[in-house]
Every structure is written in structure tokens, then in C-alpha cells.
Amino acid sequence: MSLIRRISTSITSSVDRAVSKVENHDAIINSALRDTQQAAARSRVRLERVRKDGHSLRTRQSNLQLAVSRWTERAKSVAASDESKALECLRRRKDCEAQLANLKDSIEKHDELEARINEQVKKIEARIGEVAQQRNMMRSRQSVAEAMRTINNIEGVSYGEIEDTFDRWEINLGETEILMGAATTTDPLDSAFLAEEDTAELRAELSELLKSDEEEPS
Q1: From the centroid of its chain, how far is CA 54?
Q2: How far is Cα 51 from Cα 190, in angstroms, rounded to an integer?
Q3: In a domain, 185, yes or no
Q4: Which of 1, 131, 172, 188 is most deeply packed, by most CB within 10 A?
């Protein structure tokens, strides 16, 4: 097998093996990333719903607090003229206060749940960033490792042989270019000077011939 063919075969086989390994690793990591990103997306949606529920609870709490104040003022306003109505207003206020007490417990539990979910979502998103960064680093390391593996897998071929191969390649290309006329360059100025110099030499030669004829005795 020729040197160039051995190099080509060795490089191709090593690249194929490395690409297969890289694709397997990449597929596993990408699959894990997609699953984690989908889980994070679902968690964010659920967190947003929890936040909306919390907003609704606080809105209800504010309305009940306003109702307590309103029933208190109503009881005061009718106490002198209509005691039974004033007592009913206080009964309504007491009912609102009971709802507020229960709502307070619900809000506290809700805030605790929201904080826990929010923290979990942050951890998931942070982990996604770490995995993506680590994957990119591993891809870079794999590229470098593949380059080194390709060099090491060129078995039985020294750098001197490689340089000799390139030299022979250059020589063959140069010979082909010369034969095809690719290496021939024409300088118009040089050609003009050569033509004038050739003419001058011919004129000098002619002059010498004429001069020798004149000098010969008749």
C-alpha cells in the first residue's frame, strides 16, 4: 500500500471511530438537556400559576380587611338608632375576621410552597447552564483529542517520510505544470529587448561580412 494511501486510510478509520463516540456522547447529553429543559419549562409554568394563586389570595385578603373596616363603621353609624342592625353588622364583621384568620394560614402555606418551587426552578436552570457549559468544554476537548489521535494513528510513517512525500508531490506538480505550459510566463519587455539584441547581433555580423569583403584585394 502506498504511503499516501496508508495515511488516508489511517486518518479515515480513526476519524470514523471518534465521530461515532462523539455522536453517542453528544446524543446522551443533548437528550438529558432536552428533558431537563422541558422539566424546567413545566416548572416555570406551574410556578407562574402558583404566583397567580398567591395574588388572588392577597387580593381576597385585602377585600376582607376592607369589609371588616366597612362593617365596623356601619355598626357605629346605626348603633344609636338601630341596635339590632348594629349587632348584625358586628356579626358580619366577625365572619370576615374568621375568614381572614383562615386565609392567613393559607397565605403562609402558599408563600412557603411558592418559595420552595422558585428555589427548585432556579436550581434546575442553573444545572442546565452547567451541563451545557460542560458539554461545550467536552466537545472542545474531544476535538483536540481527535486531532492528537489522528496523528498518533499514522503508524509506521515518520515526519521525514511525510516531508519527502510532499517534496515528490511538489516535483510532480511542477513537471506537469511545465509540460502543460502552466509554469511558462512571458515578459513583453524582456521579449522586446531580446528581439532588439538579436537584431543588433545580426547587424554586427552583417557589418563584419561587408567589411571583410571590402578589405579583400581585388
Answers
A1: 38
A2: 88
A3: no
A4: 131
